[in-house]
Amino acid sequence: MKRTKRTREVRRNRGAQITEFAVAIALVIPIFMVIIYIAYQVAMYMYLKTGVDAAARTEARWLAINFNYLARQNGNSTANYANWKNNSVRVGNCVADGDQFTNGTIDNSGNFVATPPPLTAVSGCYPSVSGAGVVAVRVVYPGTSGLPEWPNPRLQLFGVQLTPNNYTIAGVYCADIEP
Questions:
Q1: What is the pTM of this model?
Q2: Domains of the chain: which residue ranges?
Q3: By C-alpha distance, which of 2, 93, 95 is closest to 85?
Q4: Residues 6 or more apart from 132 whose CB is under 8 A from it?
Q5: Mean pLDDT across the chain, nearest whole number?
Q6: Between 149 and which of 15, 35, 44, 166 could a Cys-Cys bridge form, CB atoms 3.0 to 4.6 Å apart?
């Protein structure tokens, strides 16, 4: 008789353990999935931000080196300054099109503006702190290049959008014009 009672007790305890384990798994798996999703999105943001910054730095450096040549080709004018772009600057899955680039400069408040500053009459260069001139380039992800929006995939819960539709990642870099 004792053996039968003990067997029922062991089975009851085992059943309780299985139930507790199932409930623990049911609670832990969603939390684990959210942590994985957040880690993936943070890693993607870091990749995209680094790629956008590298593209802006490369394009600004190219523009600074070739600025005087391009101004002379334009008759010492910056009329086509917005179109002075290096079509070879690309970053995989991040910068795929020249439309993501905007040429400009930095205003007195330190903000990026999409217009070129005035040329100086003497040398045809922009005035700057260094005396040679400053160009700036802004690169935007995703731009108009057909790249996937970020965050991707978008998080939804019961039809409610939990993440923004399309978050823009931008990088601005400025460089002194080479004499």
A1: 0.76
A2: 2-176
A3: 95
A4: 125, 126, 176, 177, 178, 179
A5: 82
A6: 166
